[in-house]
Amino acid sequence: MWSVLIRIFAYHEKVDWMYYLAFGAVVIGIVVYSIGFGDEDQNPANAVEEPVAIRQDEEASSATHSKGNVSGSSKTWVA
């Protein structure tokens, strides 16, 4: 951007129309990005749900590991 401005005002040279098109595309892209992602950063939808899901997974995995370690399980009973 600065080189285009220096070329126009300091050297009094013409600039191709593609520079203006590219600059407009960049400005539009920045505006769309700023508007589109503003709400997601402030209130993430899964912020509360993740710890609960992790806690449930830990409880489920600890229950499955402890079933075989309990004395008096069906394997130790003699009929």
Automatic annotation (TrEMBL):
Predominant subcellular localization, coarse grouping: membrane
Record-level Gene Ontology MF annotations: transmembrane transporter activity
Pfam families: SLC35F
Compositional bias (Polar residues): 61-79
Annotated transmembrane regions: 17-36
Membrane topology: Multi-pass membrane protein
Record key words, sorted: Membrane, Transmembrane, Transmembrane helix, Transport
Gene Ontology cellular-component terms listed: membrane
Region annotated Disordered, chain positions: 53-79
Localization terms from the record: Membrane
Assigned protein family: Belongs to the SLC35F solute transporter family.
Protein name (database record): Transmembrane protein
Species in which this protein is naturally found: Medicago truncatula (Barrel medic)
